[in-house]
Amino acid sequence: MHCTNCGQEIANNAAVCTHCGVAVGQEKKFCANCGQAVNANQAICLGCGCAIATNRPNEQNKSVASLVLGLVGLIAWFIPLFGAPVSIVGLVLGVRKKYTTGIVLNVIGLVLTVANAAIGAYQGATGQYPLFN
User: Where are the domains of the chain?
Assistant: First the structure.
């Protein structure tokens, strides 16, 4: 592995470059795979073809996914077969990334989904369901 600041080779498990002192994962100036200099807006290294990316966009995408699934879960709670899986996946993504807003929205959607399913099951079992009377 190469330092993304100075391009020198460093150990794979290094937290800091022993050559320049910059923490691993800081701003990309060199390809982490081959050490070639790259521009800040390059998507791939022209030397080795490896993707140049940080973990931040992926983290942000999972947080956004949790938020979107939370909002969809709030809309879809009236169909338990759809609302439950959407809320559960959104909850898992929110918990993994510690995204509080996504967690809250998905918990609310999941509670509404379970309540709706329970009410529907009760009405169906007692013959009170309006569509089947």
Answer: 1-53, 56-132
